[in-house]
Amino acid sequence: MAITFTITCTGDDDEFARKLMQLLNEHGAVEKADVENGWTVELAKELIRELNHRAKTLLRAAADGEGWVSGGEFREEYGDSALYGPTAAITKAVKRCIRNGKLPEDSTSPIKPSYDPDNPSWQKTGGYTMTKHDAKVFSDAFAVLDGQ
Question: Who is most buried in 12, 16, 71, 120, counting CB within 10 A?
Answer without folding.
Answer: 71
